[in-house]
Amino acid sequence: MSKFAVAGATGRLGRHVVDVLTERRHQVVPMSRATGVDIVTGEGLAEALAGVEVVIDVASWHASEQEAATDFFRTSARNLHEYGRKAGVAQITVASIIGVGNATGGFLAAKKAHEELLLSGPLPVRILRAAQFHEFVGQLLDWQQGDVAYMPALPSQLVACRTVAEELAGLATAPGIPGPPIPEIAGPRKEILAEAAALLGARRGVKVVGVDGSGMPDAEIAAKGAFLPSPHAKLAGPTFQEWLDTQP
Ligand SMILES: NC(=O)c1ccc[n+]([C@@H]2O[C@H](COP(=O)([O-])OP(=O)(O)OC[C@H]3O[C@@H](n4cnc5c(N)ncnc54)[C@H](OP(=O)(O)O)[C@@H]3O)[C@@H](O)[C@H]2O)c1
User: What pTM was computed for the model?
Assistant: First the structure.
């Protein structure tokens, strides 16, 4: 049994990470502003990290704007290293996004910076790159108003948060630091984001119209598969439809 702190414990992915670690009988300190721990201002962080061996960082900025997201990741990465070193934390494991190495703008570029910032700190860092989450499709619909939603018809190998959480917990507890390439986890098959959103939209009474994604950062390379899993990626279910069938 180890003691873990989970940054972003109340988020889409974070709540599954807490569940998986708890089921595996680890001690878990949930960290989010809702639990009184702010990884940007540092409020509550020293207390939360007391006795912690591993930090799992699944905290996120709430919007897609590159500069604000990069600021969030810069400050949180510095704080997790500084407070973590003082507390005797042995390593940080972080969730990133498949294909960030190809990103030139937007949130994915901020995540690329996040990886680099974390890797430049004093503590050892393990990275797991994941595909877009099944759970993120609902967020994309929520960001649009009305009965019609416009979604990019771009490919994504969507994956369930629970599947990512299991992989992240495994990486965090694996002996030794895994060498390159950076591990990846993705769903069992390529989906088209607009088609997945249409399945969810049908349940919500929202008509989904697929658009070409122009205007989005890196849409052209995304259409060619720049954010799809690498050949070494682990692929695991459920598919989006299977996952959707389990949702209330
Ligand atoms: N969404 C995707 O499809 C996807 C795909 C691959 C990888 N990822 C990566 O996976 C990670 C988790 O994403 P997610 O979609 O699960 O995020 P999310 O649902 O937006 O959750 C964000 C979490 O961060 C916490 N948080 C925000 N500001 C904080 C602060 N100042 N101090 C402490 N906690 C803070 C939030 O809680 P409070 O608001 O209570 O603070 C929440 O628990 C991110 O690194 C993301 O880039 C996401």
Answer: 0.98
